[in-house]
Design goal:
CATH class: Mainly Beta
Number of strands: 5
CATH architecture: Roll
Number of helices: 1
CATH topology: SH3 type barrels
Largest sheet: 5 strands, antiparallel
Order of helices and strands: HEEEEE
Low-confidence stretches: none
Helix content: under 10%
Mean pLDDT: 94
Radius of gyration: 16 Å
Structural class: mainly beta
Number of domains: 1
Strand order of the largest sheet: 4-3-2-1-5
Distance between the termini: 45 Å
Strand content: 35-45%
Length: about 110
Amino acid sequence: MADLIKTLTEQYTKASLPEMNVGDTVRVTVRVKEGSRERNQAFEGTIIAKKHGGINETITVRRISYNVGCEKVFPVHSPSIVSVDTVRRGKVRRAKLYYLRDRVGKAAKVKERL
């Protein structure tokens, strides 16, 4: 039974994922279907959480647009995700950055790792 689950998860996981950590600013490109048309839409923000592992791995990306915070949870191995590009690397000391929800403006920024 364990071998069956392992082969199924290996079949549906993406082979090459970019290195992405909590605190990084990423651009996630998602395939959006509207009626009969398909288009790619980018969502750029800071990764504030990574959860689960393997086929169930998700990242939570947060951005502020028009002074309103917006968070989206993306399944990393989903076929609707076209690409995940790392824009800048963040220097953080914790695994979950939920404290950024309470911050506004410059206080909500994460230092860049060189």
